[in-house]
Structures are given as structure tokens and as C-alpha cells.
Structure prediction request, 420 residues.
Amino acid sequence: MQIAIVLYDRFTALDAIGPYEMLCRTPGSETVFVAERPGPVSNDRGTLTLLAEKALDEVPRPDIVVVPGGPGQRDQMGNETLLGWLRAAAATSTWTTSVCTGSLLLGAAGLLRGRRATSHWLALDTLATFGAEPTGERVVVDGKVVTGAGVSAGIDMALTLLGKVADDEFAQSIQLGTEYDPQPPYDAGSPLKAPAAVVGRLRDGTSVFR
Amino acid sequence: MQIAIVLYDRFTALDAIGPYEMLCRTPGSETVFVAERPGPVSNDRGTLTLLAEKALDEVPRPDIVVVPGGPGQRDQMGNETLLGWLRAAAATSTWTTSVCTGSLLLGAAGLLRGRRATSHWLALDTLATFGAEPTGERVVVDGKVVTGAGVSAGIDMALTLLGKVADDEFAQSIQLGTEYDPQPPYDAGSPLKAPAAVVGRLRDGTSVFR
Prediction:
């Protein structure tokens, strides 16, 4: 089983690494980071560089596709090399998945028409422009397409997927091995829970997130 | 403010990237991945490569030190280049932190004597051999030393640290921006919660974790 994690300039690191850490120990699987061109790929802060091992065209038929989000997603919305690869890969994949605004790339590739899907809370409404039905859920499974909400939701998305790709007990062993027993010091992880001023600054783009 | 995240062969990716994602937007900060030698560093699966931008000796006085864990930690326990750097950096740092078995490296460097600290649940007892007082807590703050439990606990560790380095509101904006509103599909993230059979296989080393 081949798991392809897509990288592009200015992706958000945790979008890719959260699912990677949950999926990379799946028995009989090979995980590969892919990009339009192999080599170093910088994240949205320009302070982290991951190596893409293979070019997209070297990985034509992955069993699982993981598309992270990040500010760089906008520049990929018209990239037919990537969107065409996503379409072709999704045609033969067992699972096609995304984290955060990675779902907008699945949408741009035409893969979300008529499907329930999620994205970063700030991007949720945009999903409708691709014929998707946006839901505020953290993880959405619609047929073979699994989408996760913003950034850290990729961990929950991948654990959910792992229960289907392997089984519940294996997914639980990964949760225990990675000691995923979350205890955030604040309860501000959703616009419904965070202080209004904090939500406001993210909505109006005056926060550190662009 | 300089934030140095230490990399070494066979580190665990999420140990490093969880804290990175929470800390990398701190106003007035520079985040740098450091290793004994700059260049590519492979993770514990050999399927992920991060670039270390600088050598340890190029970053002698970071304000914040983050030491991830991973199977490769064992090979570093006698590495005086790394342990000496940790000692020197900790002498001038504002915060010295670790995730998972990274705390064993802080211990080997003599930085945990008489301090309360945590680590991956499977490594917790080992902390005592370094004169530390192991606690089962997910995040432990003892003076300027902040330790996190296994792998994913680095996210909670770093958010806790962020509240001190910046302020609660900024930390909440990062939690909201990364949509860190955890909803794991299972409740198996701690040996107190996971099924006994799952805990047993991790304890006896017959799981995918080594």
C-alpha cells in the first residue's frame, strides 16, 4: 500500500506531518512525500524544509493520497499538473484525503462535487463553490474521500482513516504510541469556543495567519 | 528571540513539528532547525527528511531550546557534542524544553537534577536515573525547563510555553489558527485508557514502536 503525501511551496507543516505520523507505521505500507519536482520544499513560514522524495509523475497510482493545506494552496488552484495528478490518482486510489485548505485543491480538481466535506473554519464556505456540501465537522468521510478541518485536524483525520485501512486496535496502538491524549491549556481551538476578539482578528486577517 | 529545534538521526517527526507549528509565528522570533551538522536529517522511519539549517555550534545562545524524542535518542545519550551544546545552551536560554524521550537527553546532559519532568509513558521511569522526579503529567513546567510527554504532547507543551513567552491571547490565536480542537476517534492515548492488550504490546516491544 502506497501512501502519497503531496507537498507544494508554502504548505503548512503540521497539515502534512500530523497524518504522516499517524499513517507511516501502517503494516505493508510505503509512505512517500511527492511534489511537482522532487527535492526541498519550504513551508508557509520559509523556516522549515521537507524533502519531496519523488515527482508526482513518479507516483501515478498511490493507494492513499493526503493533500495538506497552507497559504501556498492558493497558488496551486490553477496548477493543472497538480490538479490533473489529483484527478488521476483519485480515480484509482482507495482513499483520497485532505487536511485544512487541502480540500480546496480536491475541490478545484472536481473531486468534491456532491460530497460532504470540511476544511479550515475560515475556508469552509469556499467549499460550496466546488459543488461540495461544507460541514463544520472535524473529520468528514464521504465514500472514499476523507477531509479534515484546520491544520491539527489532520491527526484526527488520519486516526479515523487508520481505523478503516487497518483496524481499530491498530489505530489505538498508534494513538497510544504517539501518546495522543490531548490536554490543550486553553479551550480556544474552534471559533465557537475562542474569545470573540481572537476570532475577529483571524477573520479580518490582522492575526499572524495569512 | 531565537528558537532552536534540535534534530538528530531517527528523531520522531511530530515531536519536532508539533512544537514548531505552535511556536513558529511568535512575534519577534526566529525558528531554526539545528543538528550536529547542517543538512538533511532522517526520521525514525527513514521516510521523512527535514533540513537542518545550521550546525549546533552556529547557534550557541538560543532563547528557547526544543529537544524532540524518538528511537534515535538512544544513540545520542553519549554524544558529548550534543550534550555539551545542550548544557551550554541551557545556561543562557530563557526556556529549555523537550518532547517525549527528548527529556532523557536533557537528563543525560545533567539538566534535570532535582527537577520534576515528564517523558513518553514508556520512558518515564528512566528519568529517575538522571536525578529527576518523573511525573505522569502531559506537560511539566519546573523553572525554565518545560518537558512534554510522548510525541503529540509537544503541541500541548508548546502552547503552554507560548502562553508564557507571548501571552494567553496570542496562544489562543495560535490554537484557533491551527484549529486545535482535538476530537480523537478513540480514547486510547494513555496507558490508563487504552485496551490492556494494546498497552501490553507496546510494553513488550512487539508493536510497531521500537
Remarks:
- The mean pLDDT of chain A is 97.
